[in-house]
Amino acid sequence: MGHVHPWSLRQTRWEFHLLYKARAEGLLETASTFTVGERVGLSSSDTGKGKSKMSKHITHGYHMVEGKSHHTMEDYVFAQFKQVDDNELGLFAIFDGHLSHEIPDYLRSHLFNNILNEPNFWVEPESAIRRAYRITDSTILDKATDLGKGGSTAVTAILINGQKLVVANVGDSRAVIFKNGVAKQLSIDHEPVRERKIIEDRGGFVSNFPGDVPRVDGQLAVARAFGDKSLKMHLSSEPDVVVELIDDDTEFLILASDGVWKVLSNQEAADCIKNIKDARSAAKHLNEHALAKGSTDDISCVIVRFQ
Hints:
The chain is α+β, with helices and mostly antiparallel strands. α2 runs antiparallel to α3 (125-142). The strands form 3 sheets. Strands 1, 4, 5, 6, 7, 12 and 13 form a 7-stranded antiparallel sheet that branches. Strands 2-3-15-14-8-9 form a 6-stranded antiparallel sheet. The protein contains 8 helices and 15 strands. The chain has helices spanning 6-24, 102-116, 125-142, 144-147, 196-201, 258-261, 266-271, 279-292, and strands at residues 30-31, 45-51, 59-65, 75-84, 87-98, 151-160, 164-170, 174-179, 182-185, 206-207, 215-216, 226-227, 240-245, 250-256, 299-305.
């Protein structure tokens, strides 16, 4: 936790360039995707927060911690409230890369723009999201020479005018909503065993060898992902999409990478932060709780509080 990471300064310069470019293009009206200064120095975590202009009681916070594995951080977070004409969108996402940080970084920079550029987004957001996921994955595959091997899971949540939440995901990063003391999972964990028939119908196979968990073609522990060009014949990037209406009983939303869910159930995760009103503090506490439970993976978490 206390050593300087070799990727820190390089990545900070690149993120500053991306942030400056996005601001110049008018894409970050009320952004809190990254606080650039927090990547410099001795910190191995990243954190931030923001609030809605339309509904003052809706806030978000995020927190990221690098895991204990011997690779650079492959989790990326997006958390932003964006004004579009008379509407406000809350845009939240976790992108968890595998054998890649270029692909989750590309998703962070492009996926929401692709979704919002779909002409039917305001009328049929679910179909717009599905199409944008497909288009984005096709582009990633076309850019494989530049983006490299590997891939990324994704869980995205779009909050429309503080009232309608549209969640989509591929892979095993998860969205959980907390209402009336009960945690409900909105996303689907796309595990190879769960989708074995689809994988086998495409000519692939699911095997625990080598390793200790079921993997697509013995390589990848999720059945849906962006990228992974070498496995794409046997993988899908089709998201599961669900709509949840926000009411007076809705307390908060958790988006988190599998570093949390490997060691905590949905209810355990929600219970450990339900009394923490500050969203950023809640995200930090959840990550620290997962670490205390033995998680060694990269951990990223976004909390959206509705009251």
